[in-house]
Amino acid sequence: MHLTLRQLKVFETVARHLNYTRAARELFLTQPAVSMQVRQLEEALGVPLFEQLGKRIHLTEAGREALTYARAIHLQLDELETVLNHLKGLSGGRLRLSVASTANYFIPALLGEYSRRYPQVTISLEVTNRETLLRQLAENTVDLVIMGQPPDGLDVEAHAFMENRLVIVATPNHPLAREKRIPLTRLQDTVFLVREPGSGTRSAMERFFSEHGVRIKTGMEAGSNEAIKQGVQAGLGLGLLSRATIDQELALKRLVVLDIRDLPIIRHWYVVHRRGKRLSAAAQAFKIFILEETHTATRDMKRSQGKSAKARRH
Length: 314
Ligand code: PGA
Prior knowledge:
Largest sheet: 10 strands, mixed
Radius of gyration: 32 Å
Order of helices and strands: HHHEEHEHEHEEEHEHEHEEHE
CATH architecture of the domain at 163-268: 3-Layer(aba) Sandwich
Strand content: 15-25%
CATH topology of the domain at 163-268: D-Maltodextrin-Binding Protein, domain 2
Distance between the termini: 65 Å
Bound molecules: 2-phosphoglycolic acid
Oligomer: single chain
Shape: rod-shaped
Number of strands: 12
CATH class of the domain at 163-268: Alpha Beta
C-alpha cells in the first residue's frame, strides 16, 4: 500500500465537508487537485471511498473505515509533535541534574539564571555523593552530572568548566591562623576532620597529603561540608574544604583559610554525561549555558587576579 499523509489529510477534509469545493477552499487547493488526491488514495487502497448519489457525495463503507484510521493517524502525529516539543524543551522539557554535594554551593545560583532563561523547563536536582553519581552515570538514569573528577573506566564526555580550590580552614584563634607561608611539614600529625569515603574532596585530600609525604591524624569523619565546618568551629581539628563552601564563615569571621605553601589544591568541576547520550533540549541547553556562563566568570576572575597565581595544579 503506497499512500501519503497528504492524501489522508485531503481525504479527511473532503469527508468532513462531504463537498470538494469547500474542502479545496479549506486546504488552499484547487478542486481538481483535491479530486486527484482522493482518486490517488482510492487507487492506493484499491477501493472507492466516496459515492455520488444525486448531487451529493457520501462515504462508502470502506470510506468510513478509512476515515477512522486517517483521524487516528493524525491524532498520533499531533501527539508525536507534542512529545517532541516536550523533549526539545520548547514547552515543558525536563532537566535531570545530579551534583556532588560540594557543587551544591554554586549550582543553585546557576540554576536560577538558567531557569530565568528557560522558564518552561522543569528542573530536578539531586545532591549526592560521588559513588551515587557514578552509579547514575553507569545506569544512565540522569541527564547530566556535575562532579569533581570524571570517572575512569566509563565512556563519558566531560567538560571542565570552573576551578575548585581546596583550602585548609581553622578557627581565627588557631595558633597557625596568623602565620604566613606555613610549610606543609608543620601539619604532620595534625588532626583533620574528614569527609565520608566516596567524597571527591576526601580522596583529593588523601592523595595530596600522601604525595607530599605528610601524615595527618584523622579526627571526626562527617558526611557533609556543613558538618566539617561545624566541627572545625567547635575546635575538633582542621578541615580541608572547597573554597566555594566557606563564603559565609569567612565573612562572619568564624573560620580562616590557613596560608600553607603548596595550597590551594586546584581541581576543576566537570559537567559529565555518557558519551553518545541523546541529550534532551533542556539538558543540552544547560550544558551550553554552564560552559558559557562560567567561562565568562572564570575569565573575569582570572583577569582580576592578574598573573599572581601561586597555586600549584593537582
Ligand atoms: P564531594 O565533591 O567531596 O562533595 O564529593 C566532589 C568533588 O570534589 O569531587
